[in-house]
Design brief:
single chain; 170 residues; mainly beta; nine-stranded antiparallel sheet; two-stranded antiparallel ribbon; 13 strands; 39% strand; globular
């Protein structure tokens, strides 16, 4: 029996979240490549859940209640083009080929996404409803590059699929 391990990052896919916010969109052309993720910046992690501990005064009885667990995906988008900037920050691209312009709005539009992370090997991990919060980080030096750090906050349950291969192919 082969050993299945989940490691590395091959690609991240995004699509508009479904109306109910719980169902993954169907495979097909609605799924798009998130963009190039800068090496060693992608981390999926859970926050510590809120816990409440109740203790008895008269016995050793204890009751520990655990709240919801918030999951986030943190990464940096590498050297994005105008289409990717408009997709995640909002705003519109104007002008013709070779003279296009994009103006970043001061406030991000509210947009919900579905997301799948494809590893080099192993299990796809995703969420049917997530919020992507991008920001700029440009280092203007001889070794600098334009990065867009993103925090992807899962707003629905984390999903793991061992049979998923490519959400862009129906």
């Amino acid at each position: 029996m082969p050993i299945l391990s989940t490691m590395g990052l091959k690609k991240i896919y995004v699509a508009d979240a479904s109306e109910d916010g719980q169902t993954m969109p169907a495979k097909g052309t609605a799924w798009k490549d998130l963009g190039d993720v800068y090496q060693d910046t992608c981390t999926l992690k859970d926050d510590d859940p809120e816990t409440t501990e109740h203790k008895s005064e008269t016995s050793s009885k204890r009751i520990i209640l655990v709240g919801e667990t918030n999951t986030t995906l943190e990464l940096s988008l590498m050297d994005p083009d105008l289409e990717l900037l408009a997709r995640y920050f909002g705003g519109e691209i104007t002008g013709g080929s070779g003279s296009r312009k994009w103006i970043r709005p001061r406030k991000l539009p509210y947009k919900e996404w579905a997301i799948w992370q494809q590893p080099e090997e192993g299990l796809f991990v995703g969420c049917a409803c997530a919020r992507i919060i991008p920001k700029f980080e440009i280092n203007y030096s001889s070794t600098g590059i334009c990065l867009v750090p993103m925090t992807v906050t899962y707003q629905a349950e984390l999903q793991i699929d061992e049979s998923m291969d490519d959400p862009t192919k129906a």
